[in-house]
Amino acid sequence: MGTVYKETFTKPLPAGAKIIVRKGQPLAEWKPAKGKTRTAPLTAAGDRITVEAGTYTLLSALLPSTFFELSGLWRGQR
User: Which pLDDT tens digits describe the chain residue by residue (78 residues)?
Assistant: First the structure.
């Protein structure tokens, strides 16, 4: 059996980002070059943002002690 999920990773705060609180969660809000306002949750330390990958990752086991991981193959779920 396998698991399909989107990985998360952290990035530095974008230049000009404002820190706001929405529903009790701290967020960074900024406007990139394309002009649409973006928001992302902050890490526990509050110095980086948490971003979700644009692709899905598959984690599966061929044998009980052997695991393999495939990532970057799917952009949308079917």
Answer: 678 888 899 999 999 999 999 999 999 999 999 889 999 999 999 999 999 988 888 888 776 666 667 776 666 655
CA torsion sign for 17, 72, 45, 21 is: positive
The C-alpha atoms of residue 59 and residue 70 are separated, in whole angstroms, by: 7
Please state, in angstroms and rounded to a whole number, the distance separating the CA atoms of residues 54 and 7. 9
Q: Where are the domains of the chain?
A: 2-74
Amino acid at 35: G
Is the separation of the CB atoms in 42 and 28 below 8 Å?
Answer: yes
Q: Quick one: which of 59, 26, 60 has its CA closest to 40?
A: 26
